[in-house]
Each structure stands twice: as structure tokens, then as C-alpha cells.
Amino acid sequence: MSRVRTHVSLILAGVLLATGALAQTAAVDKKVAAVEQQVIDWRRDIHQHPELSNREERTAALVAKHLQSLGLEVRTGVGKTGVVGVLKGAKPGRVIALRADMDALPVEEQTGLPFASKVTAEFNGKIVPVMHACGHDAHTAILMGAAQVLAGMRSQIAGTVVFIFQPAEEGPPPGEEGGADLMIKDGALSNPKPEAIFGLHVEPGVVGRIDVRYGALLSSATDLRIDLKGRQTHGARPWEGTDLVNLSADIIKSLTTISARQVDVFDVPNVVTLAMVQAGVRGNILPGDATLQGTIRTFSEERLQRLKELINTSVDGLAKTYGATAQVNFRQQAYVTGSDPKILESIMPALKEAAGAAGVDTQAPLRAAAEDFSYFEREIPGVYYIIGSTRDFKDKASTPANHSPKFDIDERVLAIGVKAQVLTALQFLRSKP
Ligand SMILES: [Zn+2]
Ligand SMILES: [Zn+2]
Fold first, then answer.
1. How many separate domains does the chain show?
2. Any coiled-coil ranges, and where (predicted)?
3. Whose CB has fewer CB within 10 Å in the chain, the N or C terminal residue?
4. Does residue 384 carry a catalytic annotation?
């Protein structure tokens, strides 16, 4: 075959592929429009009946019933209240997972919406108001809609889509396990094992604008706790004991210095915050113990390890100087969340199509917020993106943020979310490993 003919046939193949994808996009548009009102209704219903982390019984039942009605294989009780639905296409192929979180927060709703929550529930021994103040009602409704659209296209799908509805993204109640980690332990990522997982989050911003990055987008979150022990003494004679109050002050200053002066903050940003200091009961007793608690946020695993080393070395050294003993504890809340660059590149046309005129920003600012989704991404590569969801968006400062009692979404984001989930899944299944 001549070079010219090879070229022509390659172009023709490309055109045919593109036309196929275009025809599919038009078909998806129709199916998304058909399911849109239903998704809005689900979102309002879930919004009006919010449930706290690990208590998502009603929501999980709604999800499971819907997935069963679509003919999916459904597993319930995965990681407490989690639901996993498996959609097998007509032909075998790759396996992709789509994830939504289902839990609400102990926040008293002040949106004034006709379907605002009046729900209260027990949390940490107290009765608290409950609200979907982070938009997980939208995520759940979006994924239910995506499942419906994809189930309706089963005959055209080569491959498998796994729908993961997870509890406790905001963290399980004190003393309980839960969230992505527990779902994984309970087999959410096996039978079948997905090759990749996609997740999204609504946030104040232009409706449909997609924020994503080739790499880290959200920080890791590590709890830090330092327990100091020494000899209690009279405040008038500090030399007879151990001055843990002065030691605490030195540790606070040292940790701020580490995060600002001993690592390259232009390379990878980080924050080390001590936000809780407990020492002493009255002004003339130097206490025999003290506790400092805080959080570490950063955007790479290496940086986190380095910060831990530096903190350990500094606290040990300072404690020795004072003749005290120190115990440093780190507890991982979440790891870095972001996108696998190769997979993101392969599904970028789908994201652009879903975002439409609002566009995709691949240079989106890093966020010092953490996501439980990172536990899935430790097992398999993922893509995580944020969709702007504010009616008449002006700026972030004047828009109630996630976790605010006034947080709300423009419901147009629901159809955009469904489209994004469906198109990215289809594009991944079409692409070569
Ligand atoms: Zn949240
Ligand atoms: Zn959230």
C-alpha cells in the first residue's frame, strides 16, 4: 500500500471513529435530557432526607432499589451502608468504576428552599440538625441518573461499569470505621476489579465549569497529636519540674518554621497547623502533661514523609532540652486526590463535551481540602474533577461554600454531571489500555 493511501485510510478511520463518537454523544444528550427531571426529583428527595455518615440507610435503599430496577448486579452493606452496582455491557471489555458519596453533615440548613431539611439525628451523644451542605445529594442523584443512561445503552457497551455509592466521605462518627477504606476492605473494588475510577464534586463556580489537574488537585490530610509528659511543679519554682508550657510554645514555633523554612514551598505547598493546645488547670501549677493537636496538608507523599521526619526530629530534640518525654502521633485522614495524567488525557474530549461553553480548566488552583476518594486512588488510578454549580456566579467570597448552612446548587449542574459521568465512562471503555 502506498504511503498516500495509508494516510487517506488513516484519516478515513479517524473520521469514522470521530463520527461514531459524535453519534454516541448525540444519543447520550437525548438520554440525559430524558432522565434530567428524574435526577432533579431524586436530588430534592435526598436533600430533604439527609443522613449522617454511616447512617445512610434510606439513601442506600433508594439507590439499591433503583439499580436493581435497571437490572444491575447489586451488592448492599458494602462498608456499612455502601452500595455497589455492576453493569455488564453486551460485549466484554475494560472495567471502569464511577463513584458518588451519600452522606450529609451536622449543619442547620438556612437555604429557605421548599425542600430544605428539617431532619435531626444523634451525633456524638447529641441531637444535631442534619443537612446536605456538601452537595453529596447532587452526587448521588447524578450517579443514579448516569446508571440509568448507561443501562439504557447496554447493547452498545463493550466492557463493564461499576457504580460505587459510598458512605461516610466526611469521616465516620468517633469510634467507628467507615468510608472508602472500609468499602475497599469489604470488596468494593473486586469482582470485577475496575482498572480506574472517576469521581466528581460540586463546588461554587460557573455552572458546568470543570476544574481538574494532571496530578494532585486536593491535599492530603494528616491529624497530628503530640503528648508531652514531665514533672508537675509549683509555678513559683519551675526549676523543680518540667516546664511543658514553654516547651509547647517552642514546639508550636518550630513546626511553623519547619513548614515555612525547611522545605521548598515553591515546589510543593504545605501547611502545618497546631490548632489545639491543652496544658494546665491554674496559673500557679506547671502541669505534668500537655497535648497539642493539629493538621498537616500537602500535595505529595514524599513531602508528607519529609514533614513527619522533621516534626519527629524537632519535637524529640526540644523535649530532650526540657527534660520531658514526647510522643508524636500521625493519623492519616485522606491522601492526595487528583488525576492520573494519562487517563485524564484519554477522557479529556468527554470532559470538554460535558463542560460545554463553561470549559475545562486543567490549571485549576490546588485546594487545601481533602477527599476520601484518595483511598480508591491508592488502589487503582483515578480522575477527580470539580464542577462549578452556582446560579449567577460572581465570586467565591460572596457564594456560600460547601459546608455552609446556605450552600446550594444550580440544578442545571445535575444534567451536566450525568453527561460527564456517562461520556467519560464510555470514552474510557472505548480507549486502549
Ligand atoms: Zn464536605
Ligand atoms: Zn463533599
1. 2
2. none
3. C
4. no
**Grid coordinates of 249:** 510554645
Q: Tell whether 310 and 173 lie within a shared domain.
A: no
Q: Ligand 2 centroid to 164 CA: how many Å?
A: 15
Ligand 1 midpoint to CA 326 (Å) = 33
Nearest bound ligand to the CA of residue 200: 2
Contact residues for 242 (Cβ-Cβ < 8 A; gap 6+): 230, 231, 233, 286, 288, 322, 323, 324
**Three-state secondary structure call for residue 413:** helix
Question: Do residues 48 and 192 both lie within one domain?
Answer: yes
**pLDDT tens across 200-253, in order?**
999 999 999 999 999 999 999 999 999 999 999 999 999 999 999 999 999 999
User: d(Cα 53, Cα 45) in Å, to the nearest integer?
Assistant: 18
Same domain, 330 and 370: no
Coil, helix or strand at residue 289: strand
**Cβ(212)–Cβ(339) below 8 Å:** yes
Is residue 341 situated within a structural domain? Answer: no
Q: Ligand 2 mean position to 389 CA, how many Å?
A: 13
**Do 125 and 209 lie in a common domain?**
yes
pLDDT in tens, 131-188: 999 999 999 999 999 999 999 999 999 999 999 999 999 999 999 999 999 999 999 9
CB neighbourhood size of 262 (10 A): 13
Residue 343 lies in a domain: no
How many whole angstroms from its chain centre is CA 104?
Answer: 14
Active site residue 411: yes
* 135 and 263 co-located in one domain: no
- What are the φ/ψ torsions at residue 412 (nearest 5 degrees)? -60, -20
Cis peptide before 129 (omega within 30 of 0): no
Ligand nearest to the CA of 99: 2
Catalytic site residue from 36, 73, 379, 411: 411
Q: Of residues 335, 375, 384, 385, which has the active-site annotation?
A: 335
Query: pLDDT tens for residues 240-289?
Result: 999 999 999 999 999 999 999 999 999 999 999 999 999 999 999 999 99
What DSSP designation does 105 have?
A: B
CA 294 to chain centroid, in Å, comes to: 21
- Count the alpha carbons within 13 Å of 164 in the hemisphere toward its beta carbon: 36
What secondary structure letter does DSSP report for 221?
Answer: E
Residue 390 Cα to ligand 2 midpoint, Å, equals 15
CA of 51 to the centre of ligand 2 (A): 14
